[in-house]
Structures are given as C-alpha cells and as structure tokens.
Amino acid sequence: MKVAIHYEPLNGISMRLKRYEKILKYNNFTAVFVSSSSQNFINQLEGIDALIWYVGLADVSKQPYFNWINVLENDLGINCFPSSNATWSFDNKLRQIHQMTASGIPFVKSRVLYQKEEAIKLTNLINYPIIFKLSAGAGSFNVIKVNNKKTLINYVNLMFGKGVLPNKLQHSLGYSFRKEFLSKLVKLRAKFLGRQIDYRDLIPDWNKQSNYLLIQEFLPNNEFDTRVTTIGNRAFAFRRFNRKGDFRSSGSGIIDYNAKAIDLDCVKLALEISKKMNFESMAYDFLYNKEGNPVICEYSYGYNDEAIYNCSGYWTEDLKFVMGNFWPQFLQLKDLLKLEDLKQPESL
Fold it and tell me: Which pTM was predicted?
C-alpha cells in the first residue's frame, strides 16, 4: 500500500501531515510526500493507492487544490481525501447556504443577494440586529452583528463597491490596524525602492469578497455552539462557549468536552446529513433557533485535529458511545483505504 501526502513547500510539512505519515509507517505502508508545485507532480503520483491533500483557508492553499482535484479524481482515477464533494463548499458560506436550502437541511435563517438594488430594499424589510458575514473566514472572523439599517447599508455599499479582503474587514475579529498599516508600508517601500514584493509579506488572500450580501438571523441566548464532526459513520462532539462579552464562540478556545452535556439531536442530525450528502468527513456548528431547535450555522471539511483527539470518544449511527481517544487522521485513513484492521500508534 502506497499513499501520497500533498504538502506546500512554502509551509513545509506540518504536524498534521506528519501524523498521516506516522500512522502509515506504523502499519508498514509506504508514505510519500508530493507537491503540486513540482513540474513532475503527475509522475510523483504513479503507483499510489490514495492521496491525502489537506487544503487550508488561504487562497495560496485553495487555488492549487481546486484546480487539481477534478483531474485527480476523474482523469487519473485517484482516491482522494478530502473528496471534491466534501470540499465543494469549503470556506464558502454562499455555497453552504444554497446547498442547505436545496437539500432541506435545517439551518439559521439566511439571505444571499447578488444585486445591490435588492440588497438595499432588504435593509428596509428585516428586523435588527442582524448578522453580516463574508463568505470566507473561520474562527468567527468576518462575522459582525449589525444593529441598524444605516450600518447595513454601509456594508452593502462596501460589498457592491470596492469589496474587501477576508482578513481586512474592520470591526471584525482578527482585524488589526497595525497589520494593515505594516502591509501598506511594505508595499510603499517596495514601490519606492523599485523592488518586487514578496507575497509572503502580504496577506495570503488574493481574492476580494464582493458583489453579494450575506446576512443571517441573530439568535440571542446562545451561550455556546455545539461542534459535531463526522468521520465516516462516527460523530465527535463538544461545546464551544462564547468569548466574554461577545456572541461568537467559534475560535474562542473555551471548549467543554463533557460528552454528557451534548445534545444528541445535534449528533443524530449531523450523522444523517453526512450520510445523505455523502460527506466522508464534515464539521457542523449548531445553534438553537428561537423555537429551541438545533440549526446549523455553517460547516466545514477542515477542523482542528487535536480537538477531535481530546474528545473522550464518539457516537455511532445508533447513538452508542465508543470510548477512546482517536486522531482524525487515523479514522480518515481507515475509511479511505478501507482497512478495518488499521492500527493507531500510541503516540502521535
């Protein structure tokens, strides 16, 4: 058995990727690191049984993956994790909303508009506060509570005007005036000296967010969200509490791993959705609507591997709890390679 693991030379080989390698070697399989940046990328894939390609949030990571994945799966017939199906909506909340709407998945009431005139009209018809989001972003970045019509119109003008880069949305978590100033300083200095700008010194996002408006209903009284991550027919879950004085929980780092505190309706729904949508792995963020029912806020194939390992176990499709600490890489490989007897090393 030979498995290729994709890496990005700019970032090197992360601990996340090394865990795949260690698991494969522990089970006496061959692991080789490959890069799409190489002129011999296709040749590097000869004789492999599967490909692991972790795609990150930055455009520098997403662009090569999405330009290659259909070629890899359809033209070269390579079994890939993650699949194009699971990543189609990755870091793209517009696609998530359209997908949930079409599939009848319960989610936070949302509106997506692609015409400025319709967006302006909508500002007169909705109740405030409302949640304004960019399509891209994680860890509560690019998520803002808008309290009045005037502020929302400002965002409409921004989105249908010059647009905004994902990490440069003012008043959002993660925005830093200092970083913004330093970025502009780097550009001016390079221009003054006639030097080429190293893109590693700039924000790793290339594409502006523009020409749409995405808003969601504000759901008060949610002190935490419930993160349910499915891997195959297994579900891991924990609660993430809001930052102090804030309504956002994603990325707070305030995690409760108590399995007894988990709402099993969230677990059941996540497993049902992943099975219905044929997602080999997916992380869902649940809130409660005003009727007290769990609804999905957003979802992503990408998630923190250590948070999964820190869970005390997982639920099966019949909601039985299996005790133990499992690295997601182990379970992903087990499913991808269809190896029920794959073993997890004691230390990763």
Answer: 0.89
